């Protein structure tokens, strides 16, 4: 009797919690097919080079904390990481200086305003700026370890490489395009300096920040970075420790409250997941202990978040019942 039963049972699929390979594959395929032809949104064009990126790039990748990789669509086209980089520079500053320093020297409360708001800095007189929007991110670049600009930049590039599990590179045309035109970010850095909340030369800190935003990534890189956060700071693909579990613990709440700028609340309401977007069209989200997911699609909505990436990730999260606030009563 027992033997007969065993014989008819299908081989057990690999699982993360209750997530089977088949469930994940089906969710990604459905999300991809549902949104691939959507024509909403517009590439960022305030950084001129971003307007030239192919708006049809669309890829989704999910990587589990046990290192299984699931891909759908275009996972090789590179886009600039833009604001998604803010997460990894923040994590490195947390790792170097601890959570109290990040709270005291930068601030962690959401501004609720646009990512490059000068009013947000002015209202708080430079206090309570957030590392996941431009003022706090430029402050984070100024705080990162390194005696000079080159050492700070190397530190930033290294942490991105470790999260991605491979050597990344800078998209120089995007860097040059933004560096020649970022008076607003320079104004933010100088205003912070005036409030004693800038910890390195403001022009150089803005330059490092601009370079970090121009790092090239594809959907798989972003998903690996997200999966490293989901896995307590150990990259589940390379198996190498990148940051401590405590650093991740202090990074994810800021992503949850400020990762999608002034639309962070709407995002969290719909997905329940800490996430980060960038104006290059990348978006990553973290399901702690389970998986990292990312999508790339350049056209953005009014808040500056990728339209398709938001929809695709939300669809997968709902399909996999991965919202951590969804609890089945005992
Ligand atoms: N480099 C961009 C800027 O500073 C990043 C903004 C973003 O992705 N939201 O404007």
Automatic annotation (TrEMBL):
Gene3D superfamilies: DD-peptidase/beta-lactamase superfamily (3.40.710.10)
InterPro entries registered for this protein in UniProt: Beta-lactam/transpept-like, Glutaminase
Transmembrane segments: none
EC identifiers of the protein: 3.5.1.2
Entry binding sites for substrate: 83, 134, 178, 185, 209, 261, 279
Biological processes, Gene Ontology terms: glutamate biosynthetic process; L-glutamine catabolic process
UniProt keyword list: Acetylation, Hydrolase
Swiss-Prot/TrEMBL catalytic activity: L-glutamine + H2O = L-glutamate + NH4(+)
One Pfam family here: Glutaminase
Gene Ontology molecular-function annotations: glutaminase activity
Protein family per UniProt: Belongs to the glutaminase family.
Subunit structure of this chain's protein: Homotetramer.
Protein's UniProt name: Glutaminase
Organism expressing this protein natively: Flavisolibacter tropicus
Gene: glsA
């Amino acid at each position: 009797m027992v033997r007969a039963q065993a014989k008819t049972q299908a081989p057990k699929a690999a699982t993360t919690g209750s997530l089977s390979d088949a469930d994940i594959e089906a969710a990604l395929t459905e999300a991809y097919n549902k949104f691939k032809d959507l024509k909403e949104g517009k590439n960022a064009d305030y950084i001129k080079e971003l307007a030239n990126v192919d708006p049809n790039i669309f890829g989704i990748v999910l990587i589990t904390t046990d290192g299984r990789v699931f891909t759908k669509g275009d996972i090789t086209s590179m886009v600039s990481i833009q604001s998604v980089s803010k997460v990894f520079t923040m994590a490195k500053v947390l790792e170097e200086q601890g959570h109290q320093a990040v709270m005291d020297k930068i601030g962690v409360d959401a501004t609720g305003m646009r990512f490059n708001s000068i009013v947000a800095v002015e209202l708080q007189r430079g206090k309570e700026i957030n590392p996941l929007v431009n003022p706090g991110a430029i402050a984070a670049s100024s705080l990162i370890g390194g005696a000079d600009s080159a050492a700070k930049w190397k530190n930033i590039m290294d942490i991105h490489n470790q999260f991605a599990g491979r050597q990344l590179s800078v998209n120089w045309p995007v860097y040059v395009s933004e560096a020649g035109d970022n008076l607003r970010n320079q104004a933010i850095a100088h205003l912070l300096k005036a409030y004693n909340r800038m910890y390195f030369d403001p022009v150089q800190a803005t330059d490092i920040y601009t370079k970090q935003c121009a790092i090239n990534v594809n959907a798989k890189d972003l998903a690996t970075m997200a999966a490293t956060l989901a896995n307590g700071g150990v990259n589940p693909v390379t198996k190498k420790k990148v940051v401590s579990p405590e650093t991740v613990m202090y990074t994810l709440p800021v992503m949850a409250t400020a990762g999608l700028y002034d639309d962070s609340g709407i995002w969290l309401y719909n997905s329940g997941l800490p996430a980060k977007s960038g104006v290059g069209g990348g978006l990553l989200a973290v399901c702690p202990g389970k998986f990292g997911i990312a999508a790339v699609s350049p056209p953005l909505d009014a808040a500056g978040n990728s339209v398709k990436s938001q929809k695709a990730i939300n669809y997968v999260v709902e399909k996999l019942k991965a919202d951590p606030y969804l609890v089945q009563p005992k």
